[in-house]
Amino acid sequence: MKGYLGVDVGSVSTNIVVLDEEGQVVEKLYLRTQGQPIKVVQEGLRNIASRCNSMEIAGVEATGSGRRLAGVILGADIVKNEITAHAVAASLVVPDVHTVIEIGGQDSKIIILRNGVVIDFAMNTVCAAGTGSFLDQQAARLNIPIEEFGALALKSKVPVRIAGRCAVFAESDMIHKQQMGHRIEDIISGLCEALVRNYLNNVGKGKEILPPVVFQGGVAANVGMRSAFERALGMPVIVPEHYNVMGAIGAALLAAEDMKRKGGKSNFRGFEIAETNYEARSFECKGCSNLCEVINITMNGEMIARWGDRCGKWQSI
What we know:
Elements: E1 2-9, E2 13-20, E3 25-32, H1 37-49, E4 56-63, H2 67-74, E5 78-79, H3 82-93, E6 99-103, E7 108-114, E8 117-123, H4 132-141, H5 146-154, H6 167-180, H7 184-202, E9 213-216, H8 223-233, E10 237-238, H9 246-262, E11 278-284, E12 293-299, E13 302-307
Helix pairs in contact: 3-9, 5-7, 5-8, 6-7, 7-8
């Protein structure tokens, strides 16, 4: 049986998905990147290999902020940005989707589609309020398991208004509301509403948000955030079954489409790369005033990729 591998390497999580030839999820993994993308990709492949050893991987795509590094390690057939991957995955779940809200560990984005084509998108720039890392931090500060955070928000009867324009202000305002004696569930519900306002006023500013709306990314697990989006938008918000690995699903779908169109054998290095010695090292080029930081990627001591220079001097060596 043939399978297609999608790997989405983000700042907080690394997601790996294997799809069969019908586009169904055979295996999926959601792992914490923990600042070690090479190690985590290898760990994920080791785990996947034990369950997919009888499957031929016919195509591989890497996406996410670490897509270039992952692509080199995997021997990816195609490397695409996460906007494309998330849009493709959302279109599989909801074929007539018009708006995709994606909130991950440290970034958030909105994707506008019409007739199955991406016509506009935006990402957060200077503020991480509302992303997974911020919500994790607030749950830890309140000593509440993050899994229970959203459910508590739904118990609120009178949400308090929290300043959500910035992560620092939001946290300060939450502490102030606690000291004033407001109930925890009202504070959490108010925080969800503030983060949704922040998202719509920054990431979604100027965008025409039409239904169907699909909400994906790790934060989609938070039912309080979903409910806050539905109240703010005045429309239902769909959370897919595999909401937390949609980028990887989109990558695998694109790999399948690309390989079926081109034909031939995949460049995938094989599951044995889980036991291969990869190293990433950097140096500062002093050839000009740019002082570029050049990255060297080696496999078992052999140079396989190099990037980071603006002029192409080192990439050509």
